[in-house]
Amino acid sequence: MDRNEEFRKSVTIIYKGFIVFFAFFGIVLCLLIYIALDHTFSAFKQEDDTPYADVMDIDEDRIENGIHVRTGLVEAEGLMEVVHNCTNCHSALLVTQNRMDKERWAATIDWMQETQNLWDLGKNEEIIINYLVTNYPVPKKGRRQNLENLEWYELEE
DSSP label at 44? Predict the structure, then answer.
C-alpha cells in the first residue's frame, strides 16, 4: 500500500503541475493573441471621442453668439466679475433665476457675506449688481389690458 500511496501522490503532483502549466500557457497565449490583434493596447487607453475629451479642450471664457459658453450668462460689461465671484460657489442658473432690483441684490449679497462666507466684493459689488439688474431684470408683471368694444349677448334659456 505504501507504494500505491506514493504513486498516487506523484500522479497528483504531476497532475497539478500540468494544470498550472496549461493555465499559465493559456494566459500567455491569450495575451499574445491580444498583442497580435491590438499592439497599441487601445482597450486600456481613453479614446478622444469620449465626452470628457471635449471638456478638456474648451476655452473656459469662450463667448459664442453673445453667450458665455461655460455659464450661459449674457456677454456684457461685468460678465467676468459675475463669473469669477458668483459661479465659484453656485451655478449661474441660480443667479439668473433670481431676478431682483438693486436693493434686493445688495441685500442678498449682504446675506451671503453674513451667512455663507462670501468674501468682500469691494468695488466689484456695484459692477456685479449693475450687470445682473441690466441683463436679468425683474420681469414686468401686470394685468392684461381691459377688454374694450365688446358686444355682449344674452344667454337664452
Answer: G
